[in-house]
Amino acid sequence: MLFGCGSGKNIDTLGVEKFAEVAGQRNVRLIDVRTPEEYAEGHLFGAENIDVKDTNFAQRIQGIEGPVAVYCRGGRRAQKAAALLAQQGCTVYNLDGGILAWQKAGKPTTTVETDVFVTHLDDGLVKIHALLHASICIEHDGRVIYVDPVTQLRGCTVDYSPMPQADIILVTHEHPDHYDTAALRQLTTDKTQLIMNPRCVELYGRGQAMKNGDQQPLAGGGSLVAVPAYNTTLEHLQFHPKGRDNGYVLTLGSLRIYIAGDTEDIPEMADLQDSGIDIAFLPCNQPFTMTPEQLVRAAKMVSPKVLFPYHYGETDVSVIPTLLPEVDVRIRHYE
Prior knowledge:
- The protein has 335 residues and is α/β, with parallel strands linked by helices.
- The chain has two domains: 11-104, 3-Layer(aba) Sandwich (Oxidized Rhodanese, domain 1); 115-329, Metallo-beta-lactamase, Chain A, CATH 3.60.15.10.
- 20% of the residues lie in helices and 29% in strands.
- The protein has nine helices and 21 strands.
- The chain is globular and about 60 Å long.
């Protein structure tokens, strides 16, 4: 059992440096228990947001197990959250002084949103960070996977300098909001598994080409399948011709993640319905990808448990949760 100054059973209150060390461990779930508005202003990288004042807080933490690191603004709300988590058997680490102490110590914050999932095959955590538009960072079992990493888009910038370099990078196609040579150079090491569609490999001069239908294991475990992604609307066929670009189905532990790439609601999506897709990323910005109505049709074909509309630009995706009440739709900053 853990005991600390001002702590209770299974709860340890830590100073900034020790908390940073613990929260950075790959098996520790980091939770910001402040309001969504406070979270949006800046938070610790890798923290998911579960507001302790939300009337559904107890329901939202149900099923969370293992080590958990929590913080709030000054510490009081985190103490309440820590007590509830400890009651269900978690080992809890509380940041003494909250994010105010963190900032006073000169530690960085971010606005990158994070969602956390558990792979029941190995009880590992999969952390998904919403970077920008179609750029995604996924952490699992000590590995870092980037999908379509881009540095700048429409006045928004992703600073990759404080972020870990890539173990695996997936690129769907060569459009500049998906293929960015500067980001690839910054994130790639000589050990990075770089997987792209054939055209990107040709342009970049290195990497492993995968075409629609190809399958292969991932470095460190898991598997990858390249699936079709293309336009079907007659006036839009030139944007993403059939057979050129990839979507990907990524298997990490027991989780299957479908990253659709730039596509419309194509018939091949129906092939995924019985494959047990847990998480889907579906694009939503006509004329290049789908309308909200097309996205809804695509979601009904794929049947994911969790859906992230992404690549949506100025499209209003706020209607999608209402149109898909049976799906856990999560709107993140993938403009």
